Amino acid sequence: MTTPLSKRPEIKTKHHYIDNKEFLKAITDYRKSVRRAVRLKEEKPRVPEYIGECFIKIANQLAFKSNFINYSYREEMISDAIENCLTYVDNFDPKKSKNPFAYFTQITYYAFVRRIQKEKRILHTKYKYIESLNIDDIIRQAGDEGDYANSFVDFLKKQADTAQQEIRDSKRDKEASKLKRRPKYLQAIEDAKVAESEEKAKPKTKAKAKKTRSKKST
Which has the least CB within 10 A, 54, 67, 69, 71? Predict the structure, then answer.
């Protein structure tokens, strides 16, 4: 009696949510169409849907990272990032870099940071205003008595306390951010850029070495 052969376990291949080669090709083709439109003095072509989908995926994936997921205005952060990517899509040069994913991830990251800073400034201004109000004089007017007035006063006082806490937290976060290292994914992007530039520099150094050898032999 023959025993059935045991099946080999399937090796799971890691799939990235964006194909960098296809993304690069789409942006290169779009840049060609833009240059052609400029040359013929035509209207600038619309950004292809595939490129727009890539921008949305990059923004959504980055928004779920641990340092961004807890912000209540995450949708605004994503919208800012997509808008920034569309604004600077023409600045990406395939001759200088073959990694559009890294380029637009960086744009998305700094769009998030700018939105967070903006929201914190708005929140700080709002809380400072609440703190400066004389709540008792505003709420407790003639004839206002009872639980309603007291509960509303307590609510506004809690808002003022929250304001103070937010201000302290933002100062602490600002100090801590100075000491923090850059996120791992941004560090990886920088490492990839350095490796890419080193690879480009290798042929030049080899050519120089050949020249020096030929000079010595003569």
Answer: 69
pTM across the whole model: 0.61
> Token digits for 216?
């010595």
**CB of 78 within 8 A of CB of 60?**
yes
Q: How many CB atoms lie within 10 A of CB 108?
A: 24
Q: What band does 35 get if pLDDT is binned at 50, 70 and 90?
A: very high
Q: Is 162 exposed, middle or buried, given 0-12, 13-18 or 19+ CB atoms closer than 10 A? A: middle
Token pair for 99? 């990694």
205 three-state secondary structure: helix
Map tokens 């923090």 to a residue. 180
Residue with tokens 């605004």: 76
Instruction: Show the CA angle centred on residue 182, arms to residues 187 and 74, nearest 5°.
Output: 105
Average pLDDT, the chain: 77
Residue 144 has pLDDT above 60, yes or no: no
Chain Cα centroid distance, residue 199: 27
Q: Which pLDDT value is given to residue 7?
A: 53
Structural contact between residues 26 and 50, judged by C-beta atoms closer than 8 angstroms? yes
Percent of the chain with pLDDT over 70: 57
pLDDT of residue 197: 72
